[in-house]
Amino acid sequence: MAAVCQPVSWDTDSVDEQERIMGRRRDGEWPDGVLVGEEPNLAADPKGRRTPLDSHVRLAAPDRRNLPQLVPRGYSYDRGGGDAGIIFNCYQRDLAEGFGAVQKRLEGKALAKCQLTTGGGDFFVPPPGDAWIDTS
Ligand code: HEM
């Protein structure tokens, strides 16, 4: 069954629904019963009976043995009065292959329907050392 979430309804959605939207259980286990620390075999569930086809984890990383070319790091915050959210960061060598490719798969899907994006930016992070500076 496809997961459904309306804007700002996340907090009132059941845990079951939230887990379907994410494609991962709160206790860290995978919907197909695979334990924490192991990788689910999404290909064995082509119709999305256990892990919905439009769930976040499944769309973001359809092949758990071949993860997309980005390192996501989310920081959640709650300043009270409903001012809560996540500062989503991701690191990649190539924006189109990293964020661009994954975001294209996530657009308009289950988790995106719960999101309200309020800002964003791209930043250049130099590699360690000074090899990137042309001193010639
Ligand atoms: C409200 C925004 C978001 C939330 C709450 C969120 C949350 C999560 C969670 C809980 C996981 C599972 C982590 C795990 O099981 O270990 C995950 C995985 C992932 N997310 Fe997001 N995410 C968000 C937005 C995004 C965006 C915008 C992108 C990229 C465009 C993205 C890319 C990924 C990728 C690639 C994975 C799989 C990484 C891996 O399993 O190593 N996420 N996300």
Characteristics of this structure?
136 residues; alpha+beta; two-stranded antiparallel ribbon; 18% helix; globular; binds protoporphyrin IX containing FE
Helix proportion: 10-25%
Q: Using only CA atoms, what is the Rg? A: 17 Å
Largest sheet at a glance? 2 strands, antiparallel
Give the structural class: alpha+beta
Distance between the termini: 60 Å
User: Which ligands appear in the coordinates?
Assistant: protoporphyrin IX containing FE
So how many helices? 3
Q: Which segments are poorly predicted (pLDDT under 50) over 5 or more consecutive residues?
A: none
Question: How would you describe what is shown here?
Answer:
A hairpin with a 5-residue loop joins strand 1 (71-78) and strand 2 (84-91). The protein contains three helices and two strands, in the order H-H-E-E-H. 18% of the residues are buried. The protein has a domain at 10-67 and 95-114. The mean pLDDT is 89. The protein has helices spanning 15-22, 56-60, 96-106; strands at residues 71-78, 84-91.
